[in-house]
């Protein structure tokens, strides 16, 4: 695609990688910001007012009241953003980078055996998704409120 715009020389210099990082970083960063903003706005104002009434310093209010509640709400949304970002990495081939699905496509075309290449690419994506789901599940479990007996 870079050749279509006359940027074929820039694709070899690392420029494509910078553009891909900026594009994916901007998109996932904006989604992540919205997840955190929504989590912060869902914290009841009464909790903050009670902490101020007790005379707690601002840093302690953030560390003990805001952050734990915000994380409980934001981690599932951040999981969704991460999964969407993993899918969006396939779009970096547009700027001339050789990502996983593009490499599988080239390999499948050159050997005329697409099943093997696409199966390996699918297994790699599945492995990445599985490991990240384990991480997010543990994070959600650690942030879940436990019942007091």
Give the SSE map.
Elements lengths: L7 H4 L3 H27 L3 H9 L4 H31 L11 H12 L2 H30 L6
Strand content: under 5%
Helix content: over 70%
Question: What CATH first level would be assigned?
Answer: Mainly Alpha
Largest sheet: none
Labels describing this entry:
single chain; mainly alpha; 76% helix; 149 residues
Quick summary:
With 149 residues, the protein is mainly alpha-helical. It has helices at 8-11, 15-41, 45-53, 58-88, 100-111, 114-143. The chain is elongated.
Describe what this molecule looks like in 3D.
With 149 residues, this protein is mainly α. The chain has one domain: MetI-like (MetI-like fold, Orthogonal Bundle). It is 76% helix and 0% strand. Helix 2 packs across helix 4 and helix 5 packs antiparallel against helix 6. The longest helix has 31 residues. The protein is elongated. The relative contact order is 0.12. The mean pLDDT is 85.
